[in-house]
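Aim 2 progress update. The chain analyzed this quarter is reproduced below.
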Amino acid sequence: MQRIVTPCIAGGGGKALAFADLTDAQIFAHDVAPQRMVDLPVRAGVSITQVQTAQLVDHAPFDVVFCDAPCGGSGTWRRTPDAKWRLTDARLNALQQMQLAVLQEAAPLVRAAGRLVYATCSVLNCENDDAVATFLAANPDWVRESRMQLLPDRAGDGFYMAILSRR
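Predicted structure tokens:
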């Protein structure tokens, strides 16, 4: 059975719920702010193991580590237009540092033949392809297998995802 962890740095377990609904994998959920997931067992109706930061390494390795990275949220500006005025250069720089840290901390949790998935709700290149490129430059044993970017439109928000694996 596949083992998937969703370090939901920017969420409350929604992606873990989606994985649980779509797969028969063993799902683990983590959030740097665990209080955001307090209602996850009630909402789930499925088995999701909540893991504290200090326990992640004890549960590793995982087949998939899905990083819902903190971002400026530019992909959601269609429905939250005021958010663009809150994103400053200083905040964007801080987010970029967090994004790289998320990837660096998640990489050791991935099984040798596993996948590291990096996702944001941003459409800004500096938070997406540039973040992945910075990680890959610092970690030459990793490669990008694929990427996907959805731009916001009437059907939904913008989204970015890159799938990474070890060479």
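The longest strand covers residues 110-120. Strands lie at 3-7, 26-30, 48-50, 62-68, 110-120, 142-150, 159-166. These observations will guide the mutagenesis experiments scheduled for the next reporting period.
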